[in-house]
Structure formats: C-alpha cells, structure tokens
Design goal:
alpha+beta, Rossmann fold, binds adenosine-5'-triphosphate
Length: 324
C-alpha cells in the first residue's frame, strides 16, 4: 500500500501542498482531478521523489525519503510519465521502448517491445524514428516505454492529452485493463472526466494544494461536496430548491447536472432559452431562470427567447441533500 501521511510542500517559503494524507491500495487505479494549477503534477512529482517534503510517504514498509536522500532523484520501482514525453528523436519507436531493457536476451527484449507496442497500437510504426511522430504517437510510445520494465507504481500526468478521441477510448481500455491484470498501482492526474469516472477505483479532487474530496467516482459524482467538485465532471447547476418546490423545506441550494432537469412538462418553473449547443446525442440548453443561469438537456434545438417549463425530481433533490 502507498501511504501518504501529512505531507506539505512549497515551491517558495509559502506552503502550496498543505497537509495531504491518503492511501492507495496495491493494484488500485486512482484519478487525481482538479482545476489547472491546483497541484496535481506537483503531487505526482512528490510521490516520485522529486521534491523534499514535510511529512512521510511509505510504499509498503519502505519510507520514500525524497531527493535529499537519493543521489539520483526518483525511485527505481516507480515510473513517472510527465507531460513532455522525453523520447530520443533519432531512435526508432522500438528502440525508444526497449532503451532501458537488457540486451542479454535479445529475443525476449524484442517480444516485450512488440507486446507493448501492440498495447498502445503502435506496432506498425516500430521502425519509424521518433522525430517523425505526431504528438499523439509520441505520447503512445512514451506510455509503452514507462511500462517496459514493469513498475510497482505508475504515475501518469495527463496520459491521453494528445491522443484523438477515436483512439483514446480503446487505448484507455487496453491500458487500464493491462495495469489491473499486472496489479500495477496507478495514479493518474487528469482533466478528463472519463478517466476519473470510468476507470478509477478511487478519485481525489484537489483544489489549491488540498484534497477536498476523496471517494469512489460514483460517490463524488452522485454526492458532490460542492459545486467545484461537481463541475470537474462537466456542466453543472447550483439552484435554490425553492425554484422547484416553493412549499417544501428541502435545503437552500442543490447541485443538479443538466440531464437531471426535465423539460417540457406542464408543471415546473419557467425558463427563457438563451442558447442551444449541439452535443451529438442531445443539445445542451443554456437558459435563464429568475435571473440565474441554468443548463439542461433537450433532444431538439430550442430557439433563443422561447419560454418553457423545467422540473427536477423531488426524490433526487432530497437524496442529493441527504434528506431522505
Ligand atoms: N517548478 C516550479 N516552481 C515554482 N512554481 C511552480 C513550479 N511548478 C509548478 N509551480 C506552481 O505550482 C502550482 C501547481 O502546479 P501543478 O503543475 O502541480 O498544477 P496542476 O494541477 O498539475 O496543473 P495543470 O492541470 O495545469 O497541469 C501552480 O501555481 C504552478 O505555477
């Protein structure tokens, strides 16, 4: 188990990471989400051993002592994939992936490189020099390279940021099921809610150097502590409950995702449509409700200025507010 105990760190005298504690079980996939600049990369760098911190970090019984105690910063059994891929441009894709593998058993090495290139769907480019690769292709090769000597802990910083949607889904499924099968502990810093929702066992939400929410993706999504946490998963509304149920005492404000607001019912509260944004399966509608902004979904495009009624389920509001 990875144990992070009361760690604090600052780039200057002012502390930025403040008293963070959390545990990660062996083989767990943890996503770290939060607004840009909240400290996701810094946290990965601390775990890898690039910053000296107040507090302690343990991997099983071993304390990770950080750069003041290691001649070469970083731990042997941890691999860290940064946002720059650090490939060797004159070497081929296969040479980059195999760079740190022993040459004692060439057939074994060749087999391992082939297996990893298949995992990241780059086998057909094995002989291409890295300098000729696109950003997304470089990122896939870099992913294969950090797995070449299987790490015990894998730290990934925005690992799919350069990869197109078309490939991303397949690659994510391949990679995360490979890590599960190999029982590799993985922490992923990400802006992408799919990484956090679909693949993580646990999610840490960060804000300004602190962990402000921790739990399963379902817990964080269904019962977000505040609108900041909910907004990490997409567009969100925070509305006075009185808008929908003026005679019930449900609580002041409730967080509702756009798909939780129903349209076109005879009951409900009036809204004025401002914009429709096409999202593929539906339109996201931006409207005004008593002077505040509201987002909801509609199967059809709605004309700006149209007045219509929307409603949310009382049971849902009660459950979100912990009232039932
Ligand atoms: N080497 C550094 N020296 C000084 N300040 C730094 C350094 N690296 C990062 N910071 C600052 O620390 C804060 C956290 O940065 P960090 O890269 O950890 O955030 P992040 O959540 O990973 O952001 P993003 O999602 O944009 O990658 C930022 O305000 C950043 O400017």
């Amino acid at each position: 188990m990875l144990k992070v105990k009361k760690i604090s760190f600052g780039y200057s005298k002012k502390l930025f990471i403040k008293n963070l504690s959390f545990n990660v079980q062996k083989g767990e996939n943890v996503s770290i989400i939060g607004a840009s600049g909240c400290g996701k990369s810094t946290l990965l760098q601390i775990i890898y051993g690039l910053h000296h911190v107040k507090g302690q970090i343990f991997w099983n019984e071993k304390e990770l002592l950080g750069p003041n105690f290691n001649i070469v910063p970083g731990e042997e059994f941890i691999k860290y994939l940064t946002q720059d891929f650090d490939l060797m441009p004159p070497l081929t894709v296969a040479e980059n992936v195999g760079k740190f593998l022993s040459n004692m058993y060439p057939r074994k090495k060749q087999q391992r490189v082939k297996e990893l290139l298949e995992l990241v769907e780059m086998a057909d480019m094995a002989k291409v020099k890295a300098k000729f690769l696109s950003g997304g292709q470089q990122q896939r090769v870099a992913l294969a390279r950090v797995l070449a000597k299987p790490p015990e802990i894998l730290l990934l910083d925005e690992p799919f940021s350069h990869i197109d949607h078309f490939r991303k889904n397949n690659l994510r499924r391949n990679l995360f099921s490979y890590l599960k099968a190999q029982n590799i502990t993985c922490l992923v810093a990400t802006h992408d809610s799919t990484d956090a929702l679909s693949f993580a066992d646990k999610t840490l939400a960060m804000r300004a150097g602190k962990i402000i929410a921790e739990g399963s993706p379902e817990e964080l999504y269904r019962k977000p502590k505040n609108v900041y946490v909910a907004s990490l998963f997409g567009e969100v509304n925070e509305l006075p409950t009185k808008q929908f149920f003026p005679h019930e005492r449900l609580g002041e404000k409730v967080i509702l995702y756009p798909h939780e607001i129903e349209v076109g019912t005879s009951a409900g509260v009036e809204v004025r449509v401002k914009n429709s944004y096409f999202k593929g399966q539906h339109f996201l509608i931006e409207a005004e409700i008593n002077g505040e902004k509201i987002f909801f979904e509609s199967s059809e495009k709605l004309q700006p200025g149209r007045i219509m009624k929307v409603i949310a389920s009382e049971n849902l509001i009660r459950s979100r507010l912990g009232n039932n």
